[in-house]
Amino acid sequence: MDIGSSFLPSDILAAYLYGQLEQRERIQSHRKNLWHTYRAGLADWADQLDVQLPTVPEYCEQSYHMFYMLMPNLDVRQRLIMYLRERGIYSVFHYLPLHLSDMGRGFGGHEGDCPVTERVSDQLIRLPFH
After folding, report:
1. Could you tell me the pLDDT band of residue 52, with boundaries at 50, 70 and 90?
2. What is the CATH number of the domain that holds 86?
3. pLDDT digits (tens, 9 = 90+) for 105-116
4. What b/e string do you get for 84-113 counting C-beta neighbours within 10 Å, with b at 16 or more?
């Protein structure tokens, strides 16, 4: 986080990554299936409640990194997180706008500087991939 910091992975983390790379095709296939299951299963519900699901343009390749939804507002997102948690499903908000982080504020970031980023941050929820 400062001058002299090292962000190299430890040997154990490198070994874990290597194991994941060896299983990449299986892992990606599993994540792809989960992503498409979410997309198909939530489509009607999302249309009815003004919830935005991810879209991938045809000219882009999908990484299946995560499945997110944009809820209508912060209150709805927080209520959904609690509803899911009460049922043993741990979903989380995803992004803290960088300009509102401790470091960003240290560089002069203020609430209202990036209204679209702040709105999307309040709306975004990430569903589990396990």
Report:
1. very high
2. 3.90.1150.10
3. 999 999 999 999
4. beeeeeebebeeebebbeeebeeeebeeee
